[in-house]
Design brief:
alpha/beta; Glycerol-3-phosphate (1)-acyltransferase; 7-stranded mixed beta sheet; 11 helices; about 55% helix
Length: about 350
Amino acid sequence: MRRLVLAPGVVVGVVAATVTLPLAAIGAAFVSRYVPGKWRILRIVWFLFLYLLVEAAALSMMFSLWIISGFGLKLKSAGFIDAHYWLLAWMCRRVVASAKFTFRLSIVREGEVPRTFGSRPIMVLSRHAGPGDSILLMDALANTFQRRPRIVMKEFLQWDPAIDVILNRLPSAFVPGGSRGRDSVLVAIEEIAGSMERRDAFVIFPEGANYTERRHQRSIEKLVELGRPDLAERAAELSNTLPPRSTGVKTALRAAPDTCDVFFVGHAGLEAFVTPGDIWRGIPTDTHVAAKVWHVPSDSIPPPDDQEAWLFDMWAEIDGWISDRLEDTSEPFDDADAY
């Protein structure tokens, strides 16, 4: 159904939307006059059109690559993998550029990120919060640092046709959510981390979900149920993030090449946009997102027995940094620092 109905439907829908765009834009602009927020409806319609336009173009290119590869026979060859990574980088670049323009979104990176790791694979452990932080991170990795992202995602994201097709052709994985997906997640993590090469970047979100107070409280209770009151106490000290899940991270570190560096990523500014209602009320966002990266060279990664405490230590540092930056993200930044 996804491949035979949704993907062609997106392409046909974009053609129809292009034909009717002038009328739709006029209608959206008219309705926007009576809706709170500066051109809120028009901004949403314009961004959705651009997003679907990128989707349709990407699906068309992937269909062409499928034909050129001998109807899929050579899709796993190095040349076609490189072509799909180029296409993934293009998709991220176009969607992020559209979001920055349409919603006045700016991202400010704090400090310098080392660029001396080009000859080795990397693992990126990122904070998870707000809409779109995954694509912002993938865009930075693919376009700013010329890395080849790998990621394990929840299977429902395959309902996005372009994500479904391209990530199923690359070294990434879709897994079931909840407890039924636990074993398959670890298997996927081990396989993807173990096959990394020097240009690859394996992205993990150790929290597993966006922060909410309810999820935070439930994670503390679960740690108590598991007989880990020490970790529950540390989790209770976090005010902006969920406690990191160490099993997946430890599995990835065990499987990854010995030369793999680790990068922790924290960001602040998307916390107010969690539910669809939050996003609706926040448009136009005019949001400044602060970001910081912590680099841990491969020879500084602690042994397996100490990795859980190390992960919680790093998460506590990220959580404290977020607390210090939350107020700043509501104020304008110097455009020279934005990317």
